[in-house]
Amino acid sequence: MNAQVEKVGRFTTRHIANHWLMLATFLGLVITGMPQKYAAAMWAKGIVLIIGGVERVRFIHHMLGTIMALQLLWHVVEGVWLHLVRRRAMPMVPWVSDVKDFVQQVKYNLGMAKQPPRMDRYTFAEKLEYLALVWGTAVMVLTGLVLLYPVRWSSLFPGEWILAAKAAHGGEAVLAFLSILTWHVYFVHVRHWNTAIFTGKLDEEAYAEEHPLELARIRRSEPPPPAPRQRWRVVLFAVVTVVLVAGVVALMVWLRGTGAGLGAFKAARFS
Fold first, then answer.
1. Residue 2 domain-assigned?
2. 164 has pLDDT over 90
3. Cβ neighbours of residue 34 closer than 8 Å, sequence gap 6 or more
4. Position 269 pLDDT exceeds 80
């Protein structure tokens, strides 16, 4: 009889919920975005017909894009809270040690080193994927706003910037889709059947292979001590949050000030 595989806690309910929301939003954006980029293809026309027409496809795409933009804003605010007020480390941010781990991994893969790198909570590959996610989301949100309100932006920048935003938006979308399809699927579902982001727990064997430093810390029962909250940090967090939210609201008010959206742009262009 096979021994039961030990599971080690890795993600909280908050992490799992955020991942489900990101997964649903990303898939919806791909399904409604790719038919618009490749509108002449038969498969694209079929998807548009199944969804219910071009206008419905665009509406769903814009709605999901808004959700993704709000996710990005929430992630920034949450990161400021955890790092500034709770004084937690930022384990997803790459450091010099990750460069050393990368070099060690290459040497190990080429047979030039006997041992692979011993990594902590997140590997250098996971950190690179995280940065790609944040950077890609920011690019898609910014270029999406340019495409949604081209007339407003063209009052500040040359018209070529609108075309550049369209190229960047479509190119980044294809890059993100292919990255998830290859890089993410391989490292998460092929290399190991890793369901930790859905269950919150990871097999001890996989944990020992990919995150030995954190596993050793867990076995020693060394949770990070809670840092006492300081009033000035909470006040600074509140100020930063208010500035961020006010900036977003001001931007949307400015963009919608003249109603210069995509329809107005087309009307002005073809009139």
1. no
2. yes
3. 44, 47, 173, 177
4. no
**DSSP E strand stretches across 137-235:** 201-203
Q: Which residue has the tokens 């020992």?
A: 208
What pLDDT is stored for residue 262 in this prediction? Answer: 53
Helix 160-179 × helix 13-37 angle, to 10°: 120
> Is residue 56 scored above 70 in pLDDT?
yes
Rounded Cα distance between 146 and 141, Å, is: 9
**Tokens representing 109?**
């893969």
Q: Report pLDDT digits (tens) over 66-115.
A: 999 999 999 999 999 999 998 888 889 999 999 999 999 999 999 999 99
Q: Is residue 1 part of a domain?
A: no
The domain spanning residue 178 has which CATH number? 1.20.950.20
pTM of the model: 0.85
Amino acid 4: pLDDT: 66
Q: Identify whether 254 is part of a domain.
A: yes
**In this predicted structure, what is the pLDDT of residue 265?**
45
**Token representation of residue 171:** 């190119």
Containing domain of residue 96, as a range? Answer: 7-270
The 8-class DSSP code of residue 202 comes to E
Average pLDDT over residues 233-261: 88
Taking residue 25's Cβ as centre, other Cβ atoms within 10 Å add up to 19
| Total count of domains within the chain | 1
For the chain, give percent helix, strand, coil, nearest 5. 70, 0, 25
Q: Inter-axis angle of helices 54-80 and 231-255, to 10 degrees?
A: 160
- The amino acid present at 163, given as its one-letter code, is L
Q: Give the residues across from 203 on adjacent strands.
A: 7
Is 54 a domain residue?
yes
Q: What residues contact residue 231 under an 8 Å CB cut-off, 6+ apart?
A: none
